[in-house]
Amino acid sequence: MPQPTKTVTAGAAPALRRAIEVLDLLGSVHEPMAAADIARELGIPKSSAHGLIATMMEYELVIRGVDGRIRLGPRLMRWAGGFLGQTNLVSEFEHYFAGATELDDYTITLTVLEGREVVYIACHNSGQPLGLTFRIGMRLPAPYTATGKAQLSTISAGELERLFAEPKDWPAPLTHLGVGSLEQLSAELDAVRRNGYSIDAGQVREGMVCLGAPIKDHSGRALAGIAVSMIRSEATGPLLEALGERIRCAADTLTHRLGN
Amino acid sequence: MPQPTKTVTAGAAPALRRAIEVLDLLGSVHEPMAAADIARELGIPKSSAHGLIATMMEYELVIRGVDGRIRLGPRLMRWAGGFLGQTNLVSEFEHYFAGATELDDYTITLTVLEGREVVYIACHNSGQPLGLTFRIGMRLPAPYTATGKAQLSTISAGELERLFAEPKDWPAPLTHLGVGSLEQLSAELDAVRRNGYSIDAGQVREGMVCLGAPIKDHSGRALAGIAVSMIRSEATGPLLEALGERIRCAADTLTHRLGN
DNA sequence: TGGCTCGGTTCAGTATATTGAACTAAGTTC
DNA sequence: GAACTTAGTTCAATATACTGAACCGAGCCA
């Protein structure tokens, strides 16, 4: 009975799978696409794409612009609102940092891990210019961000390997400091586990330093990550260590408040 | 050939339709559900729900909590980010109101119309307590909100009737001031078209007054709505009129900046 | 403890969703 | 302005996804 091929069981709800692919595609290119382009890009028959997109339009998952091209629709915002409302992560985050006045001058962010990327679900941008304003819904490559490394430090070596073994799995570096190998990443994650907090020193943006820590579920796996960001010139040794402790402590408190 | 029943063509991509229903359901109840509950609630066979949910979990559209119950997953945030990034509505909004310092003390919101509701896609909450903090992803019934009325004022009478003809179509009022009939609403929308801005005086929250205006596309149909909110005691006649003009002017400018 | 309820999972048969091919229409090029 | 390319749409035939029924297993109550 050899059938060990881990084929992705492509035999259930194909319409749904394809719809997901369409939405991912539209989300990754940053402009609308013609229906025929979508079909070509995904390698599905034109007629199938046609029917699928018609149904998706009916529900406003996608909308057709004035030029006839397809773009993401507002229904997606409704679901995102449901996700944010269902998890109390965001409200706990808001509440906690509303009370942490000594961090008021820093930019604080909350993300969830999504594949090889982190997605920002809450942001407190301080007045201080970092060369980057975090926004809800924004995505960045996990291995370069502080929140991403914090979350990756809680998954198993096997899972990590599955995510980042191949060079093609690696997102393009954002600065010349981007890590590039599984060994390097996994050594760094060891350090994260030892210290209790993660560091991104200029891997996302030149001149920006971020410290992150994971919020964990009952099993110890990361549910989300938080980070504090500052400009490089401010990131002196003692302050860095103090803030690292601070963010680790914040993550632990939030982990606890969420019942874990 | 009598087959005039506008049956919702339930013969295309049923898996997708059902997945949408599942996500809507999970988004509307504010807690996780057991798979069997979902099947019962939607009136679909248990086995179908099982297969569907398995596929949805594979893509992290939904996730299974520690108690085995199903909740919305983080993938939805990614799509929302795509939607927000694709439209420059949000960035134009941010940019415009960042420069409008005379409105700094007011709460300003941006919504899109989604069926009978508006969804908040950007919010500037002022310090002033309104008894309600607007949050991204939040939904409110369109006919009670200023942004909703502003957007409804741009659709045809026929469409309006299709949305709100039946009493059962009306969302539950949020305060004792909620409108309740199509006639009343449509008279109010006439006034909105005359004045150029819409008013919600205590229909969303007792003691809160909001003024809204529509951002339009090339055809004159609303693309989004913006509103300014204040507490009732502040909403004196002259100020109200000035702010109404201001928000209408802001909406027109944004309409123009978006190329319409 | 033993029976019962209810959630989750599996599987073969059939109702039906997908698709290849054919067609229209609109833009583009020479 | 005519030929060509390409997007959008339609439809019957068939490959296949959904379903009903049956099977586990855990929790609950008497």
UniProtKB/TrEMBL annotation, chains A, B:
Under the heading SUPFAM superfamilies, the entry gives: GAF domain-like (SSF55781), Winged helix' DNA-binding domain (SSF46785)
What Gene3D superfamilies does its record include? 3.30.450.40, Winged helix-like DNA-binding domain superfamily/Winged helix DNA-binding domain
Which GO MF terms are attached to this record? Answer: DNA binding; DNA-binding transcription factor activity
Q: What domain of life is recorded for the organism? A: Bacteria
For biological process, the GO terms are: negative regulation of DNA-templated transcription
All copies of the IclR-ED domain together span 75-260
What does the UniProt keyword field contain?
Answer: DNA-binding, Transcription, Transcription regulation
Concerning Pfam families, the annotation shows:
HTH_IclR, IclR_C
User: PROSITE patterns this protein is in?
Assistant: HTH_ICLR (PS51077), ICLR_ED (PS51078)
Q: Where is the HTH iclR-type domain?
A: 13-74
SMART domains, sorted: HTH_ICLR
Protein name per Swiss-Prot or TrEMBL: Transcriptional regulator, IclR family
Give the organism, scientific name: Consotaella salsifontis
The opening ranks of the lineage are: Bacteria, Pseudomonadati, Pseudomonadota, Alphaproteobacteria, Hyphomicrobiales
